[in-house]
Design a protein that fits this description.
The complex is a heterodimer. Chain A is of the alpha/beta class. Chain A is built from seven helices and twelve strands. In chain A, α5 runs parallel beside α6. Chain A is globular, with a radius of gyration of 18 Å. Chain A starts with a strand and ends in a 10-residue tail after the last helix. Chain B is α/β, with parallel strands linked by helices. Chain B has eleven helices and 20 strands. In chain B, the strands form two sheets. Chain B has a ten-stranded mixed beta sheet with strand order 2-1-5-8-10-12-14-16-18-20, covered by helices on one side. In chain B, strands 3, 4, 6, 7, 9, 11, 13, 15, 17 and 19 form a ten-stranded mixed beta sheet that branches. Chain B is globular, with a radius of gyration of 21 Å. The interface between A and B is medium-sized, with 30 and 26 residues.
Chain lengths: ~250, ~425
């Protein structure tokens, strides 16, 4: 599904990603871990097309397409979804209108029919249950005045509605209390299917108690320095990042 | 340059002159005309008009509208100005003249609504003690001009304790089949003690040619009364518009004002309120959307004259093309006005390199125990916000439009009457669909 080779990216003059190689197949869950500043959020944002980063080398092929050459909206329409670490507040636009616009844009791009507000409300009945929310959240402005936990939950709701093939969750667990973490994790687990894939970017092992990864990768200074199975996360939890070498400190 | 209007006024056919009116009104007009003659139209040397030149109005030739039957065009235009609800009180004015056949004045306990012309004939004594008492034309040329030339308008009277179940909509339309005309609509709103009323003033043009509207509205908010006033200015892009709304508030009263402005090539709205007794609240909000070469200016003044009053103000602007927006918001806190709580914000969004805005929030505080803040911003669309929407599959043009809409719609949430808010939201949306790409 996704083949990343030698990916390099900068913020301004500063090189953040220094040659990432990563292969993600359908049905897999990959955890990308690493200390602060290792480049894991940058990787997530570069894959979604964040305008603040410049790709300086390497490639990312998604479903046979050059992902890095696509506009952010084209990536989304092709099934890539980024759950933001810091979801953006958009006052004046209701969550329901936003979700319906996004849903219809993606449907149209894939040759489908737009859903009218009534049919969309029916769809939302089902999706809201997944994150244990009611319709009230749809009349609030997008993320505006939401608590940290509500914002993360809203990201998962969007993911549930848009049904991406490749979901990238950027620190979705940070700042969540245990209940919110459970709701978010259960939402992600229920959206797992053999034909989609998930990349979890996280600093802590905690989320991986709820969402069990197939692979764990450790990022340090813009490179993957170690990859392994789910046990690698437990080892990191017990020993910290330092044992992997001075580079990681 | 001030003579055109006064010449028109002196013509024997001028409706202001032909009406049989009480002596006090004739005197009021004469005084206003004399004052207008003395001070003339303001120039940009006048601090209050620093960013807005009205020279084009002075140079224009605007006729006194002839009395004609409403055209088919007017009748066809009406639904777009209505709010999709039945049972509201609505007075329709064409070229400054009340048209009863197009109006609907349902009865409601304690509510009396008349055209100004009818009120002058039927209850001149009610007017004598109130008309021209709220506004001061001494230093306000356009108010003086309106006072001299006013020939029709509306008088909304709410008896003490009355809470009408519907708003009053005053629809001032100019139909310019007959060429450039000037109208001087005059509105008087009297809300008795503990009453509650919503009044909407809509201003529109039936076709796209040049005209000049010079409106004045006076509002008397009684003790413990609540008045919500909404002005919707959507005249043609070649129209000149000047409007002044002035309120005097009694004790424990509430005055809520909203100004929505998308029309005119040159438009200026003044909204002033004075809280003359303790315990009152004044809320002034507004939204202006400009494109092309439009120039839209708002000046507001909130005067805290007595203790324990609050004021809240949010004005937002969206500017495209080579338009020019102006916001000047003054908050005065007099020495007596201790425990004043005031907050004022003006936020502007520039969509193009050619658009500009002059914003000048002003606080003048002469009391020491007060809590007042103010601020203004001028910015562009948030790149991260755009990325967020795009990352959800929304194309960049739609994303820009949605963010712009959100910026504008946030302040529309302050309009409490749902049908009105929906109309304004629709107007914003339609405008952005054609301008933001």
């Amino acid at each position: 599904m996704l083949e990343i080779r030698g990916l390099r990216a900068n913020v301004g003059e500063k090189e953040i990603l220094r040659g990432i190689d990563l292969t993600v197949n359908a049905g897999e869950v990959h955890a990308v871990m690493g200390p602060n500043g290792s480049g894991k959020s940058t990787l997530a944002q570069v894959l979604a097309g964040h305008p603040g980063y410049q790709v300086t080398g390497g490639s990312a092929v998604y479903e046979g397409q050059d992902l890095l050459g696509m506009e952010p909206e084209a990536r989304a329409r092709a099934g890539v979804f980024l759950a933001f670490q810091y979801p953006v507040e958009i006052a004046g636009v209701t969550n329901g209108y936003f979700l319906r616009s996004a849903y219809n844009e993606i449907r149209k791009a894939n040759g489908g029919e737009e859903l009218d507000p009534l049919d969309f409300a029916d769809l939302m009945d089902e999706k809201l249950k997944l994150v244990e929310w009611d319709h009230g959240v749809l009349t609030r402005f997008v993320n505006s005045g939401f608590s940290g936990g509500e914002k993360k939950r809203n990201e998962i709701l969007q993911m549930a509605v848009l049904e991406p093939k490749l979901a990238i969750l950027d620190e979705t667990d940070s700042g969540l209390d245990i209940d919110a973490l459970r709701i978010v994790a259960e939402g992600v687990n229920r959206l797992r299917r053999p034909d989609n894939a998930t990349i979890l970017v996280t600093h802590y092992q905690r989320l991986l108690n709820y969402i069990v990864p197939d692979y764990v990768h450790v990022l340090s200074q813009g490179r993957i320095i170690k990859s392994g199975g789910k046990d690698l996360a437990l080892e990191l939890e017990a020993r910290g990042y330092e044992w992997l070498g001075g580079e990681a400190a | 340059m001030t003579s055109t209007f006064l010449q028109a006024l002196e013509a024997p056919s001028h409706p202001a002159r032909t009406a049989t009116e009480p002596g006090w009104l004739t005197t009021l007009r004469a005084n206003a005309a004399a004052r207008f003659h003395e001070i003339g139209l303001p120039t940009t040397r006048n601090e209050d008009w620093k960013f807005t030149s009205v020279a084009a109005i002075g140079q224009g030739t605007f006729a006194v509208p002839a009395e004609t039957l409403p055209s088919a065009g007017v009748v066809a235009a009406l639904p777009a100005y209505r709010f999709g609800v039945s049972g509201w009180c609505e007075l329709v004015f064409i070229n400054g003249r009340y048209v009863p056949e197009l109006s609907d004045v349902p009865a409601s306990q304690g509510l009396t609504v008349h055209s100004l012309r009818d009120a002058i004939q039927e209850s001149p004594s009610v007017l004598e003690t109130r008309l021209g008492k709220v506004t001061d034309f001494d230093m306000q040329a356009f108010t003086a001009l309106n006072t001299a030339c006013m020939s029709d308008g509306a008088v909304v009277h709410v008896a003490p304790g009355a809470v009408p179940q519907f708003p009053v909509h005053l629809l001032y339309l100019t139909d310019m089949e007959q060429g450039p005309v000037a109208t001087h609509p005059r509105t008087l709103i009297v809300a008795g003690e503990s009453s509650d009323i919503t009044v909407i003033e809509s201003y529109g043009s039936v076709s796209g040619s040049i005209h000049f509207t010079n409106a004045v509205t006076e509002v008397l908010v009684g003790d413990n009364a609540r008045v919500e006033h909404i002005k919707i200015q959507r005249e043609s892009e070649r129209a000149f518009h000047v409007g002044t709304i002035e309120a005097v508030q009694g004790a424990d009263s509430r005055f809520r004002s909203f100004s929505f402005a998308i029309g005119g090539v040159l438009a200026r709205t003044n909204i002033y309120s004075i809280m003359n007794a303790p315990g009152s609240d004044c809320t002034m909000n507004g939204l202006y959307l400009l494109h092309g070469t439009q120039h839209i200016d708002h000046q507001t003044r909130i005067e805290h004259a007595q203790p324990n009053c609050t004021s809240r103000e949010i004005y937002k602007g969206v500017l495209d093309g080579s338009s020019h927006g102006v916001f000047n918001g003054k908050v005065f806190v007099r020495p007596e006005a201790q425990k004043t709580d005031g907050k004022q914000t003006n936020k502007n969004l520039l969509l193009s390199d050619g658009a500009k805005v002059d914003t000048k929030p002003q606080l003048e505080i002469f009391a020491d125990d007060v809590k007042c803040t103010h601020g203004a911003t001028v910015g562009r669309l948030d790149e991260i916000g755009l990325f967020y929407l795009q990352s959800r599959g929304i194309g960049s043009a739609v994303a820009r439009r949605l963010l712009t809409y959100g910026f504008a719609a946030e302040v529309l949430a302050e309009v409490t009457q749902e049908p009105i808010r929906q109309q304004l939201e629709r107007l914003v949306f339609e405008m952005l669909e054609t301008s933001v790409r």
